[in-house]
Amino acid sequence: MRCRWCDTPHSFDGGTPYTIKELLNKITCPYVCITGGEPLIHEDILSLMTQLCDRGYKISLETNGGMPIDEVDPRVAVIMDIKCPGSEMEERNLWENIDALLGHHEVKFVISDRDDYDYSVEICKQHHLFTKVAHVLFSPAFDEIEPKLLASWIIEDKLPARLNLQTHKFIWPKETKGV
Fold first, then answer.
1. Is residue 6 situated within a structural domain?
2. Which end of the chain is least crowded, N or C, by CB within 10 Å?
3. How many CA atoms lie within 13 A of 39 on its CB side?
4. Is residue 19 part of a domain?
């Protein structure tokens, strides 16, 4: 996808290719977050996640929600975006993915304004997401909406949602890659 506020446009052109064996030899920590761009576009990603789970790693997958998640190993913690209208990618949501969400998964909405917030709340209610998944994450689009304003809406509406800040952008300049 090409969300209006994408923070990883460098991923559009791919990166360094590795075999699964090479990747398995590079991992030195017990928790692996597979993110992108969109990781599910890679043909061997499902196999990689299963092999990592088999080896005892804790795995999460961050997906933009536009590719099917039904074949992801159930041991993987899926964090799936649902694109709001402000992203200009709303039409790319793969709504069938909601049926494939498991109780330990998370759903994330990147919110740029009140319309996106209202949209997110409606989608959560319509699909029972507040009770279907472990966490619903509301992320303020960086430089689009103040986190304090989004937090006030969540509190005012007494929503069981988490405010999800892109912490790395508060620590490093927002252009910094690989953090």
1. no
2. C
3. 22
4. no
What's the pLDDT tens digit per position in 19-73?
889 988 989 899 999 987 789 998 899 999 999 999 999 999 999 999 999 999 9
- Between CA 38 and CA 67 the distance in angstroms is 8
Question: Residue 169 has what DSSP assignment?
Answer: H
Q: Where are the alpha helices (DSSP H) in the chain?
A: 20-26, 45-54, 97-100, 114-126, 129-132, 147-156, 167-171
Angle subtended at Cα 106 by Cα 66 and Cα 87, rounded to the nearest 5 degrees: 45
In-domain check, residue 49 = yes
**CB 109, CB 116: distance < 8 Å:** yes
What is the arithmetic mean of pLDDT over 78-82? 97
Report how far residue 77's alpha carbon sits from residue 61's, in angstroms, rounded to the nearest whole number. 6
- What domain count does the chain have? 1
pTM of the entire predicted model: 0.87
Q: Please report whether residue 80 resides in a domain.
A: yes
Report the alpha-carbon angle 141-147-150, nearest 5.
90
Task: Supply the CATH number for residue 68's domain.
Answer: 3.20.20.70
